[in-house]
Structures are given as C-alpha cells and as structure tokens.
Amino acid sequence: MARSLCPGAWLRKPCYLQVGRWCRPRLGRPPRGTRPPPRRGPRHPHLAAPRRSRRRGPSGFAGTAPPSAARGRGGTWGDPAPSPRVLPSARVPASVGEGRWRVTHGAAGRCVITMARSLCPGAWLRKPCYLQARFSYVRMKYLFFSWLVVFVGSWIIYVQYSTYTELCRGKDCKKIICDKYKTGVIDGPACNSLCVTETLYFGKCLSTKPNNQMYLGIWDNLPGVVKCQMEQALHLDFGAELEPRKEVVLFDKPTRGTTVQKFKEMVYSLFKAKLGDQGNLSELVNLILTVADGDKDGQVSLGEAKSAWALLQLNEFLLMVILQDKEHTPKLMGFCGDLYVMESIEYTSLYGISLPWVIELFIPSGFRRSMDQLFTPSWPRKAKIAIGLLEFVEDVFHGPYGNFLMCDTSAKNLGYNDKYDLKMVDMRKIVPETNLKELIKDRHCESDLDCVYGTDCRTSCDQNTMRCTSEVIQPNLAKACQLLKDYLLRGAPNEIREELEKQLYSCIALKVTANQMEMEHSLILNNLKTLLWKKISYTNDS
C-alpha cells in the first residue's frame, strides 16, 4: 500500500543497513577480490562508514574485500552510487518483526514515515510520558527530603530553645527576689535598684545550669555580672552542687529576735565546719558583718542578716570575701537575698569566640576546639594571662583561711580584662579542702570513678572497705598546668619552647602524696613564673 501511494518508492532497490557493515542489496555473491565502487556523491548520514578488512585480497594489499566477501557470504555489489542530488533517505522497518532497517529515499521514505505516524499515534506519547513520570518522581524525592530537613531542623531548634528558656530564667529570679524584698524578708544594697528604681538590668545569659543563673548586667550604668540561685539541691550529689540550698531558698535564718552576738556565733560555727579549726576565724566573722551592712549605717538589720546567711552557703561568695584584696578575684558590687553582683569581665572565656547558640548546634566539638585555639591573644598576652592563673593558684593554696581546691579548671571558668589580667568568671567549684574531705570520705564506691567531685577533684577508692578516701590525688597546680599546656605551647618562641614544655610536664606529674610536695609545688610554680616573665618583660604586649 505504501508503494502504491508513493510511486517514487519503486525507483530504487531496497537497501539494508547493518551497523558497521556495507549497505548492499541481497542479489548474489560478488567476485572474489573485487573492490566496491567509489562513491561520487555525498555520504548519507545514516549509512555507517565502511570498515576495512584485515584479510588480504588477491592483489596483495589489505582492506580490499568487503566484510561479507571475506566471510564468504553471497551477493553482488549494489547499484552504482547515486548522483550528487540525492533525496533524503529514511530508515523504516523492512517488515513487521524484522530486526533490520530499510533505507528508502525520497517521497517513499516520507510517505512510509507519515503513514506510520498516522497508524501509531501512541508512539509519540511514550517517551514524553516516560520523561514526565521521571521528572515527577525526582520532584517528589527532592520535595520529601526538603520537608524532612525542615522538620528535623525545626525540631532541633525547638529543643535547643526549650533548653535555653529553662537555663535562662532571669524574670523568674527577679520576681522571687523582689517578692521577698517587698515583704521585708530580705534586704541588701542591690534590692532598691533591682525592684524599685529598676536600674539593675539583666543582659546576656551565661547560665550553664538551671539552678545557677548568670547574666551580664548593668547597674547604674556600670557593667557587671549578675548571679542568682533558683532551686535547692536536696541531695549532696557529687555531680551536682555541693551545698544544700534549703535554708537559702526559704530565708528562714536567722529568726526574728536573734541578737548580733548570736548571729556571730552562727557564722563562726559555719566557718568552722567549712574551713576547719583555723585560728583567725573571728577576723573573718567581723569581715562578714562589715560586708552584710549594705547601707553602711553601722548596724545589720534582720533582712541583711538573712541575705548574708543565704550567701554564706555559697562557696563562691565566701571566696570573694576572703580574697577581696587579690587581683584575680572579681570584686563584689552588691547583693539582695542570694542574688549578688560582681564586677564585669570583658572576656568570659580563656580562649575562643562567642557564637550564637543556633550556630553552635552545627559545629562539631572537635572542630570547635581547634577553632577556639585560633581565636586567642598573641603569645606574650597569653603568657601574662597564664601568670595570672599561677598567681591565683598560689592565693588559694594554703591561704590565710585554709586550702581551697579547684574542682573545675575548664577554660569557660576563666576570663580576662582589657589589660589581659586573669579574672575568675565562675568559682562555684572551688571548695574548701576541709569541707570536701568531710563530705567525700566514707562514700560508697566501686572504683575510683565513683570518688569524683566536679571534673578534677578525685580521690581513690579503698577496695577493702569499698569507701572513698579523703585525700585528693592531684593538686591545683597540676590541673592548671594541664589546662595551660596547649594554651602556651601553641605559638611559643623557639628559644624557650623546649624548656617550657619540660617544666609544664613536670608540673602535670605533681602528686599530693609525693614526698615534700609543698616544696616541689613552690619550686615548680616559681620556675614557671620566672621563665614567662623573662620572655615578656620587654615586649609591648605585656
């Protein structure tokens, strides 16, 4: 039917196209050794290029015989090559079920293709439908993963925001303190500014635990750090805060009718339990009464006494009073109940950069530590900060009121001011040695891991009695040197690097149980300070 509709199809013989083979009609076998006729017209783009045969013909050169002749297949070479003006050809199936394609030229090819299109309209829909289905699948896949990422990210942000709102409850803290102040239960120099004139503001939240609120604040245009206690610790758990807070929250001591002398006896008994039987505890009691007199009228009111008693339960407040004349202890600015304000610290971490908590979520801890080491002052300034830490260790080691133990010497608890002088940011984990020994001894244990307070105060476990011993294994100086090792060795000058590393490792190896520990402690501390001072004494950064 196609030939009757398209008479031009009878002008040429059908030609079969095989991939990589000659296009020839099936008429007969060509003589052996004959060469194909040369093409005088343009090669049709649908015809495959001839491939030379590796067999030699009779004339002695390779590639003369076509592949079919080389294999001995029958047939003769086709008609002469078409003239230069050749109608475009088309490839259509020779017959139904035949695996080869027949090349037709001119009107016949166009007619057959047109008829095939009209007879098989669904052939044009198969490929577009396949592509459309494929695009729909890809689109759905990306849409699903996009929604999954949005859902997981929203959940993480919600959890972190809930944690943030639990850690930072400045409004609740202010409400509790002001309610106690307005009812006359407590009093202090910061109460009027916090609850009446409202000139004491809460700024950036620095809290790490819900029951210990810490904020950057402003008091009468002076920057400071505000700390507030929210909850009580019902158990003396070594993973939680050491001091029981029941009396602090209720403000039930001293009671109405208590005289000043009776209050002094209460404070003296508290100091004896915390610091041991020191000979100069009476001087410390008088110092506390001076601090408790917030309005400086020479008398301590009942509200001021309750506030002072609540604050004395906190080791940090007690240490600030004891070391108030030392350079590296922040100064106390005022208090109200168990809320107190101390001087501001420009840099609240030993090293690192402050980032928003949303960005902190996506930074791995290992990369965060490496990044913190990059954001540090120059080495002479780091050496000056390190000297300040060594001097603070010397202040709390066998001070005027006993020895204090540093149970958390992490970088986040240390800071410095604009002159690069060390300032302690958080001293809640610096506890009196006598108090810690009384609480940790006879504690049931299975191994040495059960005899730990904070992160750095460790004792040993007696396997015979299954109780913790009272002697702390590592002194404060060894903990400080462990913190300063990476801090000082990074970027240290080559001329002192070897000696500095040697002294730091000797310091880290220091043990409390070693013979003549106090002498070694003083010797190593003085050697480190001397080495650092010699290097930075004549630099501008110091």
From TrEMBL:
Transmembrane segments: 142-161
Domain of life: Eukaryota
InterPro entries, per the entry: FAM69_kinase_dom, FAM69_N
GO CC annotations, alphabetized: endoplasmic reticulum membrane
UniProt KW Transcription keyword: no
Chain ranges of the FAM69 N-terminal domain: 133-291
Keyword Membrane: yes
Keywords: Disulfide bond, Endoplasmic reticulum, Membrane, Signal-anchor, Transmembrane, Transmembrane helix
Region (Disordered) location: 26-89
Protein name, per record: FAM69 N-terminal domain-containing protein
Lineage: Eukaryota, Metazoa, Chordata, Craniata, Vertebrata
